[in-house]
Specification:
The protein is built from 2 helices and 5 strands. By secondary structure, it is an alpha+beta fold. It has 2 domains: about 30 residues; about 70 residues, Copper binding periplasmic protein CusF (OB fold (Dihydrolipoamide Acetyltransferase, E2P), Beta Barrel). The chain binds copper (II) ion (CU). Copper (II) ion binds next to strand 3.
Length: about 110
Amino acid sequence: MKKIITSVFVLIASAIAIPGFTMDDMPMSSEKVSEKVITGKGKVMSINKSTNQIRLKHEPIPALNWPAMNMEFKVKEKALLDKVKIGDNVTFTLAPSGQDYVITSLKQ
Ligand SMILES: [Cu+2]
């Protein structure tokens, strides 16, 4: 009898636990997707310290479904622009900012 009660209890406990587990396990919302770090590689084409922008010829970024492009990015902090110069091959990370993406880290 005690064994039956125990198994019933285990059954109920797992029934309660499963929905929570599944929710955490699945990439549900787009919000969750955008929270992950997006990294890219590219070459510095130009730097504009007055507008906090950098032009990069970047490789495809699978995390965003972007093809290779030559485009301008805003940097989150101006100091990031002091770390690189035109012609450098760099690795960068992006974070969503409004409808755009800003560079949050930049290194050679
Ligand atoms: Cu691009």
